[in-house]
Amino acid sequence: MMTPIIPPVLHERDLPGPLSLNRLARMGTVRVLDTSSGYWSEHANTLYGRALIVQALIPFPTAACALTALWVWMGGDFPTTLDVLSNSHYRTMRHGRRVRVFSRKIAKVHMTTIGDLSITSPQRTACDIASMFSGRPGPTTFVDQMVDFMQTYHFSPDDCIQILNENPCMATVPRAHAFFNTVRLYYSECKEERTPVDEAQNPAVALAH
To answer: Per-residue pLDDT tens for 66-111?
Structure first.
C-alpha cells in the first residue's frame, strides 16, 4: 500500500497558517479531530485510507479494536475514543481522544492486517462491541448499524455467538448474547431483502475472510 502524498493526519504545523485547518474543515476537505489536527476526508472514504488514519493515531505497537475497528471497517463518524488492544496504559489524550485499552487475549485467527494496521476481524470486532453493553442491548439505530456491518462482510449473529462460546467464562458473555439475539431479528429480515455483495467487486469483503 503506497503512502499518500497528503499525510493521513494533518496538523496545524503542516498547513500555511493557524486558520487553515478550520477553513479546510468548513470546505469539507478535512474532518477535524481536535483544535489542531484532522484527517483528509477523501482518505476516510476507503477502507485502506481509514486504516492509514487509525495507524497514525493509535499508539505503537497496539492493534485497533472495538469502535475504532468498526470505524475502519465501515466508516461514518469518527469515534470519541481510540480503542486498542494492549497490555500498557495510556493516560495522555491523543488528538482529543482518550486511549481506551482492552487487554484481552485474542486468537490470531480473529486478527488481520490492513496495510500496516493490525486490527480485529469483523466478527471479533462485533463481539467486542456487543460485550461493551451493560444491561439491555443498544438502541435500534446501533443494531441497524451492526446488521449493515454483518451484511457487508458476510457474517452472521451465529458466527459471533460461536466466538463468544469459545470464552464462556467471560463476565460479558451473557450481555453479548442478549445483544446478538436482538440483532438476529433484524438480520433475518434484512437477509431476505438484500442481494449479497459480489466479493469480486468488493476487496474489503475478501480481505475480511
So the answer is: 999 999 999 999 999 999 999 998 988 999 999 999 987 888 999 9
Strands, E assignment, the chain? 9-11, 30-34, 37-40, 63-64, 81-85, 98-102, 111-114, 117-120
CA angle 189, 109, 201 (to 5 degrees): 55
Cβ–Cβ < 8 Å for 57, 71: no
DSSP type of residue 94: B
What's the rounded Cα separation, in Å, for the pair 6 and 58? 19
Cell of 80: 470519541
Maximum distance among all alpha carbons in the chain?
55
**Half-sphere exposure for 87 (CA within 13 Å, toward CB):** 2
Which pTM value belongs to this model? 0.85
| Positive or negative torsion for Cα 109, 72, 67, 142 | negative
Determine the Cα–Cα distance for residues 77 and 138; give it in Å rounded to an integer. 17
